Amino acid sequence: MEDASNTYAPGDESPAASGSSYAAPTPAPDPDIGRRAFRQALIDARLLYASAVDGIYGRSGLFESIADGLNAAISKLGADQHAEVMRFPPAMPRRDFEASEYLKSFPQLAGTVHCFCGSDRDHHRLLARLEQGEEWADQQRPTDVVLAPAACYPVYPVVAARGPMSAEGMVVDVLTYCFRHEPSIDPARMQMFRQREYVRLGTAGQIVAFRQVWIERGRQLAGMLELPHEVDLANDPFFGRGGKIVADSQRELKLKFELLVPINDGAPPTACMSFNYHMDHFAHAWPLRTADGEPAHTGCVGFGIERLTLALLRHHGFELAKWPRRVRETLGGL
Ligand code: ATP
Ligand code: ZN
């Protein structure tokens, strides 16, 4: 096991590393001070490798071993779900992305893949622009590929193509890097990060029951990891003027809950898990049907692998050897 040489020393006001009771950090006049300090500590300790772009990082061996431990702990927690494991690349067909209506709600977050599709002459022009330090990307053409905005999106067209589900519906286990265009100095707000999810497809009753089970399991996991936490009602960052109305309705219908952990000193706590009920939204995008031919309902529980890793580093320090034994055991004996 590799250990980072530097240790991040959380301030005295930080929640006790051994407790799992929730202690929200005191709001600071500038929450970015705490975010920058934690980010710099992670970079100095070579846990994260910074790049020229905010939110795009390399991860160290130690960081990845914690991430692997989390994935193993989540698999153990979900062993009774008999989930079908699906692994997708961090991209999906543009056609499916359009069908999902993501652009209606979150155009500001989406990432599309563009490529050079020109002739020899266009290539020369491209190289000349590059050499002169001019803008060149506007010559790139859209491909049929977009970056996955959430781990569960590629699942729905695959399941829909199979025809109606059995009466039990199904659970799918996914893990992928996701892209969201939200550059930030907050180390917990990356542009590419991993979501591990269990996705439930079936009737409304099945989804609501699934979500309740996973809210409890999320709490249980945070407790075993000795992370201070609370579960709260939440909403997504819907775009534009109309977005406020959609966000309010999402809250009113109690469609999204989050498990929050304080990560950055002086900043609001960070959503490390989310518990979502999509109603029959995805059955309008794809022909997802229950056994009796009704539009299927869906929901998912999402674990932010990077955020959980950061929360562990924040609360237990940068030296794994000093972490509480129970936490290391939960992570598969790190
Ligand atoms: P936030 O409200 O903080 O933007 P979210 O509620 O939109 O996050 P979800 O769409 O529910 O996030 O994604 C599921 C999980 O993925 C989150 O609970 C979080 O742990 C993780 N996640 C989301 N956005 C990011 C990000 N920019 N960087 C790292 N992890 C993220
Ligand atoms: Zn999802």
TrEMBL record:
A Gene Ontology molecular function term of the record: ligase activity
The scientific name of the source species is: Cupriavidus yeoncheonensis
Q: Which domain of life is it from?
A: Bacteria
Record keyword Ligase present: yes
* E.C. number: 6.2.1.-
| Region described as Disordered | 1-33
Ligase in keyword set: yes
Protein's recorded name: Amino acid--[acyl-carrier-protein] ligase
Q: Which lineage ranks, top first, belong to the organism behind this chain?
A: Bacteria, Pseudomonadati, Pseudomonadota, Betaproteobacteria, Burkholderiales
Q: Where is the composition biased (Low complexity)?
A: 14-25
Q: Which UniProt keywords apply?
A: Ligase
InterPro entries xref list: aa-tRNA-synth_II/BPL/LPL
